[in-house]
Amino acid sequence: MNTGRMLYTTALFPILLPVALHAQPCERLSQLASSTVSITLAKVVDAGNLTPAGSTNALPNLPPFCRVAADLKPTPDSDIHIEVWLPMAQWNGKFLAIGSGGWGGSLSYDEMADALRRGYATSATDDGHTGPSASFVVGHPEKLIDFAYRAEHEMTVEAKTLIRAFYGSDPRYSFWNGCSGGGREGLLQASRYPDEFDGIIAGDPANIRRNSWALELAVQTFRDPEAYIPPARYPMIHRAVLEACDAKDGLKDGLIEAPESCNVDFKSLQCKASDGLDCLTARQVQTAQTITSPVATKTGKILFPRVEPGTELRWSRLAGGPQPADLFLDEFRYVVYQDPNWDWRSFNLERDSAKAHAIDKNVDELNPDLRAFAKHGGKLLLYHGWADQQVAPGSSVEFYKAVLDESGGLEQTTDWVRLFMAPGMAHCSGGEGPDTFDKIGLIEQWVERGKAPEQIIAAHKTAGKIDRTRPLCPYPQVAHYDGAGNIDEASNFSCRLPK
After folding, report:
1. pLDDT at 21
2. Per-residue model confidence (pLDDT) at position 8
3. Choice among 127, 204, 330, 388 that is catalytic
4. 180 is an active site residue
5. Annotated active-site residue in 100, 180, 353, 396
6. Which of 19, 124, 369, 468 has most Cβ atoms within 10 angstroms of its Cβ?
7. Which of 283, 494, 254, 476 is closest to 387 using CA atoms?
């Protein structure tokens, strides 16, 4: 190497960049301000632990890096905060952008730390406001656009500018990693800015229209005190669901591999005599049926798919009361009605979902036409937990099928988009099923080596110890037990189409 501008010899064997080859010192990045960009911090952070301001959690074992913070104002009403972390040594030549959850409002430092340890230059944003509430939207329509997609795009543009200035070269690969709200953000970036990323990881994407679904379930569950199911009864309901559906995949293991084919008649749990923890009242039976049914209009038009069987232990997220979670409620009191005192009991599914859609459709609605992203060479790794208690898993199945339709069918798309459904996995993580897998390693293999994932080996841990592994299969395939060997070892399963 002669001048330090060549960062690698081939895509597969990077030569990591030593400190001496930085194009300019970290502190000098503060001079890169513009009319829309203010650099508020540019300093070297030594190796060790870091506790960011406002956080109580220390980020351990970080390598030395150049920490840059900036304020972005693409519109007069914007106030987007970002951070970009640049390895001082052993940069892998790549960039990883991190998504946000919920309504944003903070930076995902844990995920940034993980990316930095892997050798990535990385960035995150607060989506243009501070705090988890959506109150920032009231009187500020531009901030809703910042939250939806503009903050992530502006962050990415600025991060790449800083990478180029610091290392003297563009990143050779750019990736996105996000779950829930971050999954939604990744899909919006793929459709609106198809040349921005080479690979996108989008988990449990939480489309804003999900909030109409959540509010309808709340109205049906909380407005009538007799309809409420105490969480103490969840384990009983869960046992009944497993009894009805667990063995349908050919193996009784506490997981429902293909919950789409599972339909439970909760009337079998109705109390025969006095009310107790081992049964449901007639009104509670109706609630259980409502939770596990799609939300539909009076004419039968389905607005959002159901919570799948297997989620019962976590129903409190949607039906725990005494009122809807702020995450779901904020859409209507701040975005739709712009009234913090709006009464959720007045929610009307058809009227209010239509009002919400009219606002969201040109801002936050997911577009399944990702052909431009595919033409750019982008790869999209979608995943979703079948036991997701917060975003109905069928919404990702619907989106994936729509992507196939827009792109010409399965044969034309399997080389650039795949969906993996995780049995027993809750929202982004947790639950009874294997929920831990190396998403970043998978997207690297796919983008850099052209090796599309045929299956994903996921692990479940109890008290920090792996006690089960299982293959996650590309939808619509499911993991079938081969008939011999330990049922907690992935090697004894094969991916096949369901019976």
Report:
1. 58
2. 36
3. 388
4. yes
5. 180
6. 124
7. 254
* Residue 129 known to be catalytic: no
Together in a domain, 130 and 279:
no
Residue pair 257/478 in contact (Cβ under 8 Å)? The answer is: yes
How many residues make up the chain in this entry? Answer: 499
Whole-number Å distance between alpha carbons of 297 and 349? 7
Rounded distance between C-alpha atoms, residue 166 and residue 95, angstroms = 13
Burial of 200 (0-12, 13-18, 19+ CB in 10 A): buried
- The answer to whether residues 397 and 270 belong to one domain is no
With a pLDDT cut of 70, the percent of the chain lying above it is 95
Strands 94-98 and 173-179: parallel
Residue 470, phi then psi, degrees to nearest 5: -160, 140
**CB of 190 within 8 A of CB of 374?**
no
**pTM score of the predicted model:** 0.94
Maximum CA extent, the chain: 85
pLDDT band at 11 (very low <50, low <70, confident <90, very high): very low
**Is 44 part of any domain?**
yes
Q: From CA 264, how far away is CA 251, in angstroms rounded?
A: 18
237, burial (CB in 10 Å: exposed 0-12, middle 13-18, buried 19+): buried
Does residue 355 carry a pLDDT above 50?
A: yes
Question: SS3 for 247?
Answer: helix
- State the pLDDT at residue 12: 41
Domain that holds residue 406: 19-207+365-496
Compute CA 204 distance to the chain's CA centroid, rounded to the nearest angstrom: 4
Q: What tokens does 19 get? A: 């400190």
Are 26 and 133 contained in the same domain?
A: yes
User: Which of the four pLDDT bands, split at 50, 70 and 90, describes residue 7?
Assistant: very low
- What is the total count of domains within the chain? 2
3-class SS of residue 208? coil
* Catalytic residue of the set 153, 238, 427, 460: 427
Distances (CA, A) of 256 to 224, 421, 439, 459: 31, 11, 23, 16
- Residues 388 and 398: their CA atoms lie apart, in Å, by 15
Burial status of residue 472 (CB atoms within 10 A of its CB: 0-12, 13-18, 19 or more): buried
**CA end-to-end distance (rounded Å), the chain:** 57
Q: Are residues 201 and 57 in the same domain?
A: yes
Are the CB atoms for 202 and 187 separated by under 8 Å? yes
* Residue that is written with structure tokens 């809703």 in the block: 144
Q: Is the distance from CB of 138 to CB of 460 less than 8 angstroms?
A: no
pLDDT, residue 159, reads 98
What residues contact residue 183 under an 8 Å CB cut-off, 6+ apart? 99, 202, 203, 204, 205, 206, 382
- Whether 388 sits among the annotated catalytic residues: the reply is yes
